[in-house]
Amino acid sequence: MFTEKKNKNVKLRVISRPCSSHRPTSVRSCLLKNALFISNLFFTVMGLVVLGMGLWGLITKESFAQERIGHIGTDPMLVFVFLGLTLCLLCLMGCVGSLRENSCLLRLFSGAVLILVAAQVLVAIAAYSLQDQIVPVLRSGMLMAMVRYQDDLDMRFITDEIQMNLQCCGADNYRDWEMNLYYNCSAPGVQACGVPASCCIDPLENGTVWNSQCGVGAQQLVEFSAQSVIYLGGCLGGIARWIEQNKQLIGIVGIALLGVQILTLIVTTRLLDNIQWSKAISSQRDVES
């Protein structure tokens, strides 16, 4: 009788130890899953923003129109659409993997995040080491876009967005548009010696109608007269000023995003370890029972 009671006590102790040790594991697992879910939710919103930018660009340029749908495969806005979709799918994989405790999905997710972190670090290092060449590259790209302004809808869209948002005209100044075949002063036609409407200070008449002729003949005006019609400064100076004014914010945001990704990678790794340990405990309990 004493032996049976002793055996029962031993069994109770054996069963109770895994349960007591399993409870903190469940709490830790729950915290890790919630942290990973919140992180993925944050990056899902970012992915949707990027996807929205790409779709907005396609819709604004009327890329889905019947006469342009055949060339949509070369549209640069598809880069934003692809990046947004990729980020959303990656976050979905992380969410499902964490909530379902699927080790396979979590390993794929952590591998993808590790590749993204490494790529961003390499891009940052390359940008810092080649910072003296950034301005010449931007200048050549801007001049090329200006030369192909009428012939390439994508170049026109990007150039117009830059000039309107930064309130600038040309690469270095508004007279850079003379290199364009249609805006050159020796060119025949109405656009000769003019600039695009995106250079105008007020391209909208009465705030509603787009005046595409507001920049006609602007290159023939002296700077004092032209400054009341168009923006005189070039976009390279505007880009440089914007970067200079916001470099601290850019650095903080970049470091914060990279830190969140590294933290996500650490949380995913800990969650994987926790899942494996929980499975090991469950197997041990099954054997002991």
UniProtKB/TrEMBL annotation:
<protein>
    <recommendedName>
        <fullName>Tetraspanin</fullName>
    </recommendedName>
</protein>
<dbReference type="GO" id="GO:0019899">
    <property type="term" value="F:enzyme binding"/>
</dbReference>
<feature type="transmembrane region" description="Helical">
    <location>
        <begin position="77"/>
        <end position="99"/>
    </location>
</feature>
<comment type="function">
    <text>Part of TspanC8 subgroup, composed of 6 members that interact with the transmembrane metalloprotease ADAM10. This interaction is required for ADAM10 exit from the endoplasmic reticulum and for enzymatic maturation and trafficking to the cell surface as well as substrate specificity. Different TspanC8/ADAM10 complexes have distinct substrates.</text>
</comment>
<dbReference type="InterPro" id="IPR018499">
    <property type="entry name" value="Tetraspanin/Peripherin"/>
</dbReference>
<comment type="subunit">
    <text>Interacts with ADAM10.</text>
</comment>
<dbReference type="GO" id="GO:0005886">
    <property type="term" value="C:plasma membrane"/>
</dbReference>
<dbReference type="Pfam" id="PF00335">
    <property type="entry name" value="Tetraspanin"/>
</dbReference>
<keyword id="KW-0325">Glycoprotein</keyword>
<dbReference type="InterPro" id="IPR000301">
    <property type="entry name" value="Tetraspanin_animals"/>
</dbReference>
<keyword id="KW-0472">Membrane</keyword>
<keyword id="KW-1003">Cell membrane</keyword>
<keyword id="KW-0812">Transmembrane</keyword>
<keyword id="KW-1015">Disulfide bond</keyword>
<keyword id="KW-1133">Transmembrane helix</keyword>
<comment type="similarity">
    <text>Belongs to the tetraspanin (TM4SF) family.</text>
</comment>
<feature type="transmembrane region" description="Helical">
    <location>
        <begin position="35"/>
        <end position="56"/>
    </location>
</feature>
<feature type="transmembrane region" description="Helical">
    <location>
        <begin position="105"/>
        <end position="130"/>
    </location>
</feature>
<feature type="disulfide bond">
    <location>
        <begin position="169"/>
        <end position="185"/>
    </location>
</feature>
<dbReference type="InterPro" id="IPR008952">
    <property type="entry name" value="Tetraspanin_EC2_sf"/>
</dbReference>
<feature type="transmembrane region" description="Helical">
    <location>
        <begin position="249"/>
        <end position="272"/>
    </location>
</feature>
